[in-house]
Amino acid sequence: MDNAWSQTIADVLQTFAHDQQATLRSSRGELRKADWLLMPDVHPFSRNEAMKGGIAVYTTDSYVRVAPYLTRPSCNASFILPGMDTGTRLTPELTLKDVACELRSLLERAAEPDRVIQAMAMAKRLDTRTLSATTATLTLAREARLANLADHFPRILNVYLNGSSRTLLGLVTAIGRMAGTVQDTRLRWSLEEFGGRWMMHPPEAHEIRTIQFDEGLWPEPHMRSESRPFAK
């Protein structure tokens, strides 16, 4: 990554975090490939639990992706909600000032409270949908395969089965908890985005009921699926 590009992004993130009184989670204060900003607002989820909203930022050599972010501190689980990126609008002809303005605009959009409020409403809805162990296994296997994350299905399922919540939210939370144990930033983003997409667009009840065992549901032995963090 070009030093000027990297420094411009870092400066915008630091300024935005300061203006919004947010916490910028970054190793040793340096810009990484991904950064997570936690906003000051706390959102009550239940009598004994609260959630926090924030912003996740992923940088590459040619574009920046920005997305709303939701975390359950009590479970050490986080979710990246559907977001937006600078796409092809950032061309070599643009100045660093243009880059800073574009990024700042995306950060402001991602920080809109309605996005986190909508995610909270969905989380509460998912928390009312109970799942049997078999249904949870089949649902997770299918969704992980569709997201090109089938290799990580066993670990996510293990987290879910060792947890206490037997709801669809519990299954989504297992994805976020497992993501927090991953050191690779790109893979962590993929998993947290997987959980966030699933939270906002969960399988409908009739889809879950009709899932069946079939040969194509499970990954082939010894086959490694390539993760695609920003698949639409």
Q: The biggest beta sheet, please? A: 6 strands, antiparallel
N- and C-termini, Cα separation: 24 Å
What is the helical fraction, as a range of percent? 40-55%
Strand element count: 6
* Structural category: alpha+beta
Overall average pLDDT: 82
Strand content: 15-25%
- Enumerate how many helices there are, as a single number: 8
Radius of gyration: 18 Å
The global form is globular
Order of helices and strands: HEEEEEEHHHHHHH
The residue ranges in which pLDDT falls below 50 over 5 or more consecutive positions are 213-232
The gist of it:
This protein has 232 residues and is an alpha+beta fold. It has helices at residues 3-20, 96-110, 113-126, 133-146, 153-161, 168-179, 185-200, 205-209, and strands spanning 23-25, 34-46, 49-59, 64-72, 77-80, 84-85.
Supply database-style keywords.
18% strand; single chain; disordered C terminus; 232 residues; alpha+beta; globular; six-stranded antiparallel sheet
